[in-house]
Amino acid sequence: MSQTVVIGEADLTFGDVVAVAREGARVELSQTALKALAEGRALVDRLAAAPTPAYGISTGFGALATRHIDPELRAQLQRSLIRSHAAGMGPLVEPEVIRALTLMRLKTLATGHTGVRPVVAETMAALLNAGIVPAVREFGSLGCSGDLAPLSHVALVLMGEGEVVGPDGVTAIPAGPVLAQHGIAAVELAPKEGLALINGTDGMLGMLILALRDLSDLVKAADIAAAMSVEALLGTDKVFRPELHAIRPHPGQAASAANLLSVLHGSPIMESHREPNECTRVQDAYSLRCAPQVSGAVRDTMAHAATVAERELAAIVDNPVVLLADGRVESNGNFHGAPVAMVLDFLAIAAADLGSIAERRTDRMLDVARSHGLPPFLADDPGVDSGLMIAQYTQAALVSENKRLAVPASVDSIPSSAMQEDHVSMGWSAARKLRTAVDNLRRIIAVELVTAARALDLRAPLAPAEGTGAAVRALRDAGVGGPGPDRFLSPELRAAEDALRSGAVVAAVEAAVGPLN
Fold it and tell me: Which residues form the 5-imidazolinone (Ala-Gly) crosslink (predicted)?
């Protein structure tokens, strides 16, 4: 039986978001949430009936907020808002992102502070539980006044209009028949409900949480790959000892160094060159020696980003917002995505640097002048065979792409809505490029793993450590071959990428050495 996430009791967790977005967990509105929804709606109904204008309830939106809307036109106002704002273009956004942003918006609706009727939240929950994914396009959000276009595409589906993702997962089909097939009635939006459905940072927040989940696996994999490279290059593990990291007390650095020591523990390859007369090098290159410092900085950046995400997950983002305690509806600027946008950009920088140092280790293993006895490009018959030469080209292309993606989006702004919205966050754009950067980082680490595994095999008859040996075996089980004549390499690189995505490599190493940080 799949997990059920209850909305309106305890705070949502990152695990809840991942479960709904990726694992198809069901959602359920608690009685507390339904009571809050009813209270918030009663307040909105009173304001809608009052002669005093209330933004988004009895007025237009944005630069058109000065127009008072007659009561008989207010249902049309809501329909017009959603239809006009569902203006996205470009490729379809991934279903997991749409499920995450839908959950984020539902979480905020369920507080009662947005003033929507219970039926609106219940219908949104029904979409999630039926596996109906609104078709949302790549471009349309400036990350301010909420992720307006993406959320409008979701709201349009609640109205029985617009498009949903078809059974093939790649094409858009009309929403109305799909809702009817699942017995879900379309909602006719009442005053304020259209605005409440679209005025949030839900898309960028959902993508931030998913990226943090992926990066939590990749930093472990990066430490494993670094340990394999250090071992294959006859480096030393002495620089990872805890006393050296205690004197520079960054928590991420200490965690990464501890991982490297654990994965390298008991390595016969290491033991083969520990004595002074067996090793002529004074210090390893930075890409080996400083691996914990770089990976650790990534971990600390992730910790900061997670703090921001936790705060945003606890937030109520809408404008105007219903203040239930004192019966007011007030305008505010909480929809501005700057806090989320900045950490999304920060994580893109972290991903770029972690990939950059991994590529330097790969290149070192392939260079006969720096690999300490390994054959050129780890080829079987150098000159006849090219070995892993072009795998490093692929890795270098990915590293270069991530450097471009590290250019921040959050420092950009472009005015909109006739200069009413004159400073925007570009947080959606920051989130979109981070997703690409994370996927690229996984491929970069996969190339280092393939290279280091082959290099370790070439150190035979010396054996690797238990931890690094487990990683090699996991790759071989996944379909990554060992040393030998040249062969079609792309499938093996993709197999390594898949082994990272599934968690097989990290799981194999942890089974051998215990949990990693």
Answer: 144-146
Structure confidence by residue, pLDDT tens digits, 250-267: 999 999 999 999 999 999
The 3-state secondary structure of 116-135 reads CCHHHHHHHHHHHHHCCCEC
In 351-373, which positions are buried (b, 16+ CB within 10 angstroms) versus exposed (e)? bbbbbbbbbebbbbbbeeeebbe
d(CA 464, CA 473) in angstroms, rounded, equals 11
Separation of alpha carbons 82 and 158, rounded Å:
10
Give me the pLDDT at residue 236, please: 93
Q: Is 70 exceeded by the pLDDT of residue 277?
A: no
- Residues marked active site are found at 55
Contacting residues for 275 by C-beta, under 8 A, at least 6 apart: none
Burial of 517 (0-12, 13-18, 19+ CB in 10 A): middle
Q: Given this model, what pLDDT does residue 183 score?
A: 98
Residue with the two structure tokens 């215990």 = 514
The domain defined by 208-513 folds into Fumarase C; Chain A, domain 2 (1.20.200)
Residue 445 half-sphere exposure, CB side, CA atoms within 13 Å? 33
Q: Is the pLDDT of residue 161 over 90?
A: yes
Alpha helices in 159-248 (DSSP H): 175-181, 193-198, 202-232, 242-246
pTM above 0.85, yes or no: yes
Q: Where do we find the tokens 């704002």?
A: 85
User: Is the C-alpha dihedral spanning 360, 228, 398, 210 positive or negative?
Assistant: negative
Query: Positive or negative CA dihedral for 229, 231, 233, 236?
Result: positive
Write down the residue that tokens 């980003």 correspond to. Answer: 305
- Spatial distance between the Cα atoms of 109 and 103, rounded to a whole number of angstroms: 10
For 7, the enclosing helix (H) or strand (E) is strand 4-7
Cα–Cα distance measured from residue 172 to residue 204, given in angstroms and rounded to the nearest whole number: 22
